[in-house]
Amino acid sequence: MTPLISAAKVGRMPHPRASEVARVALELCDRCGLCLPLCPPEAIHLEFDELLIDQQTCTGCRKCIAPCPVGALAMVPA
Amino acid sequence: MPDSDVLVVGAGPAGSVAAWEAKRAAPELDVVLLERDPTVGIPVRCAEGVGDAGLREFVDPDGAPWVARRITRIIFVAPDDTEVRVADGTVAWILDRTRFDSFLAERARAVGVEVRVATEAAGMERDGDGRWRVRVRGPRGEEVWRARVVIGADGVEAMVGRWAGLDTRVPARDMESCAQYVLQNVDFDPDAIYLQFGDRIAPGGYAWLFPKGVAIANVGLGIVALRADGRNAREYLDAWIARRYPGGTTVGSTVGGVIVNPTIKQTYGDGVMVAGDAAHMVNPLSGAGIVNAMKAGRLGGRTAAAAIREGDTSARRLSSYHRAWMDLLGEEHRTHYRIKQALDELDDGFFNGLARTANRIPERKRSLGRIFAHALVRHPQLIPVAARCFV
After folding, report:
1. Looking at the complex, does the CB of residue B378 fall below 8 Å from at least one CB of chain A?
2. Which residue of A1, A34, A44, B159 is surrounded by the most CB atoms within 10 Å?
């Protein structure tokens, strides 16, 4: 595996093509952490009581959206 | 810079048992247990059910203050609401996870583990002399802890594994999205747990009622979003409760993810091991994870203590943890995963028919094994499922 692919895989590189990115509605989010391991580029973090989505790393793949048990995630224009 | 030998991240069942075992195995070691939440055991993200035999390997549930209810029956509910009571002699327990988790953490503290609450790990790097530097945020501000071995017991979000370069990601088909209420004033058999299947009830998962007492229960369900009709887990749960328990009063609510993917390919690295939900150690068929987490914590804690005493905390040394886990349960989970995949192919009509077949067996003889044997003869759709048990 080339270093370039490896860097993209772990999500350290911004994704240039994402026209939409995931955003969390914090008033709905229960901070359960379910979406973190679903994110292929690992763009989602939980810090104490706050869910953070790195808008530069999100590729807009939508994998986190439907699984959220309370519908707190949605796509917004990048 | 504070130093530790074993730094455990997360004071759930995996982490507290890991810390306790490490300290008991090697009392001279400094063992530190970090918990992000201010109180161990809060919030509860769990249906709180646990099998009797597994639990007794670690603790005695009889009369324990952290037990909510003793369970002696399972009632499977088909998609069309046909109930199948299974009198298997099975005994399970519904825990009070807040008390249970705090009991386990206190037990670790009692043998000399330093427990720090309201303290989260924020990142970690390898330093020059083969130890981890773990960045930690808590009431004392930011600190960097050095550790010979880090045990990641940080649950579904699994950040320790991620920082250590392990692949802890989950394909969407293997993530159960769960929602649960604590419901009061509902009518059920308080000695039984109820499990209902059905594509319109809980696609890819099941709905449950686990009694916490008379007329009070954890009522929840898990779905695989890829198989759902656009509703989220809480919306499915609201619909289920409106149909089955319309008079109930909600006194609590939680949501969370249950990873029904087999154990991650590698649960260890140089100076690091991951355990419990963080390593995908839930039984993929049942979704049960508490005892598995404790078993992994025990293996991890003992491995950490032995490795430090030997002066070798390399990935190669810690790989014995992974092998021990795979022998104990990891391989079995692969089988359960294949069975789950085969069951996922069967439709509601099949399960309705299966329930009627099962109910033809007299109740006192109606064990899971006998149901399966009878069903195999009458429902050839089960043959591929049975085959997965042996592949």
Report:
1. no
2. A34
